[in-house]
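We treat protein structure as text, and this decision shapes the records that our systems exchange. The tokens are whole numbers drawn from a learned vocabulary of local backbone shapes. Below, we set out a record of this kind in full and without editing:
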Amino acid sequence: MIADEVWRRLDPDAGRMTRRGARRLAVSLLAVAVLAGAGLVLWSIGIVVPRLRAIEASGFLAQINPEERSFAYGVHIRNDGQVSVVVQAVGAEGPGLELTDARNLEGTLPTTLHPGEVIEIRLGYRVTDCTAVSTEDWPIPVRVKGPLGAHTVDVMPPTLRLPGEAPDETMWSGDRDPYGRSWQDALARQACAPPNA
């Protein structure tokens, strides 16, 4: 037990923050909040990481060549950010797929993609192993140069339906078509089908 005399000698303000220290803490917390807010704004308008996405659009979609076990796929990519980016390259090889072509259908790469603009890219693939092609969603990497340097942004194309797998007018609720397949799976299956089948 501690005697009352010891309690009286103890400083009641020991460990308490000084007014100057409290002001420093408040200013520091305010600075952190302002920086975090500014970071979120820069992120949301696409300065930190460009904001690109694949959209459904009319035009070139796909071309299948079962004789050569190859396909070409057209993907429309929109810049949803508030700053322009330079699209330098698109596409990648994957399991069972060799990238043979990647080009802008309306010009050349690199090309500048302004806010709200859409670019149509044609990707060509040769299927090297029909059983190795992934059935999972597979994003398309888009290499861009933005205000803060180079980035690779993954865009996810919409799912595709194989002919005859679902009624044409099937409706669904939710984000994913229950009859849809990942783009590379649907196209590789058609390219791997025996010719004239």
Q: What stands out?
A: The two ends are 94 Å apart (CA to CA). The domain at 52-167+177-192 is CATH 2.60.40 (Immunoglobulin-like). DSSP finds three helices and nine strands in the chain.
